[in-house]
Design a protein that fits this description.
The complex is a heterodimer of chains A (455) and B (406). Chain A has 17 helices and no strands. With 455 residues, chain A is an all-alpha fold. Chain A has a domain of 108 residues. The radius of gyration of chain A is 25 Å and the shape is globular. The relative contact order of chain A is 0.11. Chain B has 406 residues and is of the alpha+beta class. Chain B has one domain: Cytochrome-c3 Hydrogenase, chain B (Orthogonal Bundle), CATH 1.10.645. Chain B is globular, with a radius of gyration of 24 Å. The relative contact order of chain B is 0.19. The model of chain B has no long low-confidence stretch (mean pLDDT 86). Classes of the chains: A mainly alpha (455), B alpha+beta (406).
């Protein structure tokens, strides 16, 4: 019997590995976010500022003005169209890298520099795959389903654009007096697409998945809408810009901490103080409830019953392939982004900084930088100063930075939940929705309405 | 306005049951099991497991191959716990052959077998959480520890899955230097890792909701169907061959067989396996301390005096300090006779019945595979549960399909 030593060292992933990977994850996120929002910014600037200005400069007559206005009106649509595909690519990559981080792995790290282009390659692959319509499927419904799943929720989210850009002139016209109502109404349409797709697939697993998703959407829309309505009662408005503005001025003014109940409380009266405290506590519960209902609304783990890979083999999208599947995939991640944005606008103060002083400092810095650029560059290079100034609106810029930070924090939180929890069962899901969430949301609605008067 | 029901008969209002094929290509049937389900909405009214997609005639192959060849083949029956199938075959052949297995080899067998039990349960833990829908996060934690054990297997047997390490008459080879130290280090840190899993899973409210009171296996039903292993111990019956019918060096080791008193639900089966991993870890620790002849480094030191002579009467090389009692070559023969031997595999009682006619091939083989018997109880557990519970229950039985179909 001969004995030899073990030559292969057993790797020991420790805290250093995790920190190193965390650093890489942050670098990746910052790079991708710069790409996404840079692209959106430049595209909307081209369509909304530069092109109309150029047309009005070089063409004569009323037509020029009209074309310019049409282009300006198209800006929100263009920015959304640019934003959605790149953002979904980033979110998929971010999710895979974050899950790898939670589970001591590396995640995709081969395509492009350190795996940055993995999802781009996946998207190209999906576009070139064969588009299969299964035997016995209803072809028209089958094709229509991804579109119905995708389009309404995305164009329904347009009013939010006005809020997240701090009412920038180019975006302010998409704002509606009943903005949040419109967003919620449109976000409940996609479930029709799911049921259509699952029925048209002519597949039993898909059918079960589609029916599950219908039941789930109906039950969880109620607490979702009730929690948003409560916020609207607190703000006294359905206008998202209005609601966002009311939350300016520090952490305590955010709706998640009672929407200014603590700052407005009458310090002389004990009733007022107690009411303010209870109200801020209820608002935190309300926010958690919104997050849960939103998770169920966009079919994320632990509420991913319509997909349920281990039970229903991906449920409603079992039979989809190629670009139709890509659209489903895109819509899912975009929906996650939209519910996070709604949470940011309604609860987390939208573009407001946690401390008012931060806002002032940041806006001041950006303004002075712009002024410097205009004075120095503008004097030497003619129109360049004007171009730079039209490119960046300091208030919008700072607000957008905060919104990006808040929204993507919520997205990472959703990924963390996905990396932790198992899935509910359908009857448990219904129990949780109807017996816990809906009564709780009604109680909170009444309680907060009363408490608001007492503060 | 009331709905006009005048024209409707009871036939128009009837709902239909749906027959659905789950598998053989389904991500959660752990291979190629086909379940013919009859569903009433989401609830199962009838279930019929269709097996045999992976039938490879393992018994027939055994009768047409030499003992030496078949030893290498038999790891494939239960690919997650190859050590145990080899062990059952070796024990049966050794019983016929009246071959005394050296004690050092028995200790090595217990060590690698318990390691294999841990790897098997770890893989089960990860995949079971996938079955329950924790798709991306937790399942990778058990694989981290499993990887370490597989590296150790690779170092000692040259293979990570199909070991062919336990042979008729002993074990294949001595452990390499440093192997015992690495295993010792693993056993020290492993209980903390199990605590980690339990922190994530055992108290998780969704996990409890999905597993408590689901798939209740009563004692009497379990006994009727011949269920063995963690499944029957989770139903409150203390049936472990390592204690019930001791073999090898198990009588010399101190460990408790985990028996979960209670309903016998999927949660109990989960708990039983978690505790079994802790016990296996304890067994490995004791073996590392007690092993006859000590660690390979010490033994090599002792053998310097006799220059590793390898003679039977040598105090350092012969007797219980050997690791192999029979010569391993293509002419390996077993005396004529018949025997049944069973070991406690991670899935239950794994038995091997052999008739030998003294040639280099066996005359008859019959395997008693735990997965096959455990699977037969499935329809008792599934009927009346929703679709989602099929995976929770089926996963908790821990069936390996090649083990069912052979």
């Amino acid at each position: 019997m001969t004995s030899s030593t073990i030559t292969r060292e057993i790797p020991k992933p420790g805290i250093n590995f995790q920190l190193y990977e965390l650093g890489k994850f942050i670098r990746l996120s910052l790079t991708w976010l710069t790409i996404i929002f840079g692209a959106v910014w430049i595209a909307s600037w081209l369509v909304g500022v530069l092109l109309p200005a150029a047309i009005e400069q070089f063409m004569q007559g009323d037509n020029a003005h009209f074309i310019g206005n049409v282009l300006r009106a198209l800006t929100p649509i263009v920015s959304v169209m640019v934003f959605i595909p790149i953002n979904a690519m980033f979110m998929v990559l971010c999710e895979r890298r974050a899950l790898a981080l939670f589970t001591v792995r590396k995640g995709p790290n081969r395509v492009g520099p350190d795996g940055y282009l993995q999802t781009a390659a996946d998207a190209v692959k999906l576009l070139f795959k064969e588009d299969i319509t299964p035997h016995g499927a209803d072809a028209i419904m089958f094709t229509l389903a991804p579109i119905i799943f995708f389009a309404p929720s995305i164009f329904g989210a347009l009013p939010l654009l006005a809020a997240v850009t701090a009412d920038h002139p180019l975006y302010s016209f998409v704002n509606l007096p009943t903005g949040i109502f419109y967003v919620l109404a449109m976000s409940s349409i996609p479930v029709v697409g799911l049921v259509m797709g699952s029925w048209a697939s002519n597949n039993k697993y898909s059918l079960v998945g589609g029916l599950r998703s219908a039941a789930q959407a109906v039950s969880y829309e109620i607490p979702l809408v009730l929690s948003i309505i409560t916020v609207c009662f607190m703000a006294g408005s359905l206008d998202v810009v209005q609601i966002a503005r009311q939350q300016a001025g520090g952490l305590l003014n955010w709706n998640v901490f009672g929407g200014g109940a603590l700052t407005h409380a009458n310090l002389g009266s004990i009733t007022s103080i107690v009411a303010a405290l209870i109200m801020s506590l209820s608002c935190v519960i309300l926010f958690c409830m919104y997050l849960i209902a939103a998770c169920a609304e966009v079919n994320r783990i632990p509420f991913d019953l319509p997909e349920a890979e281990s039970e229903l083999v991906s449920g409603y999208n079992t039979e989809y392939s190629g670009i139709k599947f890509a659209i489903f995939f895109l819509a899912e991640f975009t929906n996650l982004f939209i519910v996070s944005t709604v949470a940011t606008v309604m609860f987390l103060g939208c573009g407001a900084a946690p401390l008012p002083i931060l806002d002032e400092v940041m806006v001041g810095t950006v303004t002075s930088l712009l002024a410097w650029a205009q004075n120095n560059l503008g004097a030497n290079f003619g129109q360049l100063g004007w171009l730079i100034n039209s490119l960046i609106n300091p208030t919008t810029f700072v607000a957008a930075l905060w919104v990006i930070l808040k929204v993507y924090s919520l997205v990472v939180f959703a990924i963390l939940v996905r990396g932790t929890l198992p899935r509910f069962r359908i009857d448990q899901l219904m129990d949780f929705g109807w017996k816990r969430l809906i009564p709780l949301s009604l109680i909170l609605l009444i309680a907060i309405t009363f408490l608001k008067e007492l503060v | 306005m009331a709905i006009d029901t005048a024209g409707l008969t009871s036939d128009d209002l009837k709902t239909e049951e749906m027959v659905i094929n789950m598998g053989p290509q389904h991500p959660a049937t752990h291979g190629v099991l086909r379940l013919l389900l009859t569903l009433d909405g989401e609830y199962v009214t009838h279930v019929e497991p269709v097996i045999g997609h992976l039938h490879r005639a393992q018994e027939w192959q055994g009768q047409n191959r030499t003992w030496f060849q078949y030893q290498a083949l038999i790891d494939r029956v239960d690919y997650l716990s190859g050590m145990f199938t080899s062990w059952a075959l070796s024990r049966a052949a050794e019983t016929i052959d009246e071959c005394h297995v050296p004690e050092r080899a028995e200790y090595m067998r217990v060590i690698v077998a318990e390691m294999n039990r841990i790897t098997s349960h770890l893989l089960w833990l990860g995949t079971y959480l996938i079955d329950l829908g924790a798709m991306f996060g937790f399942p990778f934690y058990p694989f981290r520890e499993r990887e370490k054990l597989l590296d150790l297997f690779e170092a000692i047997a040259g293979q990570r899955m199909m070991f062919n390490y336990i042979r008729i008459g002993g074990v294949q080879r001595e452990a390499p230097f440093g192997w015992f130290a690495k295993l010792k280090a693993f056993t020290e840190e492993f209980p903390d890792r199990i605590d980690e899993y339990e922190a994530i899973v055992t108290q998780n409210p969704i996990f409890l909701k999905r597993t408590k009171g689901v798939g209740i296996l009563k004692k009497s039903v379990a006994m009727d169907y011949g269920v063995t292993g963690p499944c029957i111990r989770a139903s409150g019956i203390n049936m472990d061959l390592r204690r019930f019918k001791p073999y090898s060096v198990y009588p010399k080791l101190k460990f408790e067989v985990p028996v979960i008193e209670g309903d016998g639900d999927t949660w109990a089966r989960y708990m039983c396996r978690i505790q079994e991993m802790r016990q296996s870890n304890e067994i490995i620790k004791q073996c590392l301390d007690q092993i006859t002849g000590g660690w390979p480094e010490e033994l090599a030191e002792r053998r310097k005096s006799c220059n590793s002579c390898g003679k039977e009467d040598c105090a350092n090389c012969g007797g219980d300090l050997k690791i192999m009692a029979k010569k391993q070559n293509a002419g390996l023969r077993v005396k004529a006779g018949e025997a049944f031997a069973a070991v406690e595999s991670p899935r239950g009682t794994l038995g091997c019945y052999v008739i030998s006619n003294g040639s280099d091939k066996a005359f008859r083989f019959k395997w008693r595979n735990p997965s096959f018997c455990n699977l037969s109880v499935l329809h008792e557990l599934l009927v009346g549960h929703p679709i989602a519970d099929i995976m929770a229950i089926f996963g908790s039985i821990d069936v390996i399909l090649p083990d069912v179909d052979r």
